[in-house]
Structures are given as structure tokens and as C-alpha cells.
Amino acid sequence: MLPDSALPARSLRPGVSLVQTSLGPTARVTPDSPASTVMTDLRQVRAVTVNPTTALRQAEQSMIHQHVHLLFVVSDMPSLQGLITSTDLRGDRVMRAVEERNLRYEDLCVADVMTPLSMLDAIDCAQLKAARVSNVVATLRKHRRNHLLVIEAASGGEPERVRGVISRAQVERQLGTVIEASGPESDLAEIGQALS
Prior knowledge:
By secondary structure, this protein is α/β, with parallel strands linked by helices. The chain has helices at residues 56-66, 92-101, 110-113, 125-129, 133-143, 168-175, 188-195; strands at 39-41, 49-50, 70-74, 80-85, 115-116, 122-124, 147-152, 161-167.
């Protein structure tokens, strides 16, 4: 083909569909697997974001269309303000906001029910690299969280950055078991027994 020649084009017929990202089945892990195997790495998977002023219904539609259960709340990219999950969209915060402020669900926005940055739990990326899945399970149980952020240390004048996210649901799928919340931190032997 000559460098300046046009490519042949044609009309499309009804029934054409879009190619969608295929994540494939998640790899099965054990409590002794490297902790990084249960982290969604934001260098490999694009973070799905939402503005704090976005209506809850619109945020829910975004989650459905993007096939995610968590949106990163940002107003000025890439500065993180918090998270909103599918659980937040129908949880206690929604009911409180509706009752206390005499609003309808349709009037609420992401900022009304999101989990702000100050309320999020994060673990250090360097520590995660040396950890096992059993350590992640213990952390999820101890903090009674559905998600943990993985933070990359500040370097070269850049601030700390969210490198990844760990989802309780994803860890459960990969382990093939349910992670029960606990009170005090359990020791690794107890976790190993619960997962085997």
C-alpha cells in the first residue's frame, strides 16, 4: 500500500457489537500467595473516577457500565477526595441524608454519601510486596473494610499516590471462601485454618 493511500471503508450492517475488555477468570490464590496477586494495580487497570457533584443515579450507572463496584472521587484530577462504592449508594448514609435533610434520593450527589479520604484505610505498597494473602485477609478482618487502598510512597517531588486497591469481594473470589470480620486481630495460624 502506498504511504498516502486511503484505507478502504464500508458501511456497517445491523448487529455489529463492541469489543469489551475481557478480564478473564481471576487466578486462584492461597493464603501463602504473594499479597500483590489480590491487588488491582492502577498501572494496569484504569481507575474509574467520578466528580463529587455527580448525582447518585449517575454514579450507579457509571458503576454498571464500567463493571466496577467502586469509584474514585476526584474533582481535580488526579487529586483523590474519597471513594464511593455500590454499597454506599443504598446504605445508611443515604437513608440519613434523606431523613436529616428532607431530600429525595434523586437530589443526593456523590459528596453526600462518599467515604472521604480521612476515613479510608491504606497500606504501603512496599509492605504489600513483602506480604502474603493471609496478611491481607488479617488486615481486612481487623479493619472491617470491603476495600483497602495501596499507597505508593512520595518520590522525586511527587506526592503519595494510590497505586492499587484491594477488594474483599475479589479476595474472597480468588480464595474461594468468605472473609468474616473479626474483632481483635487474629493470628496467622487461625486465618490459615479458616481458609483451608
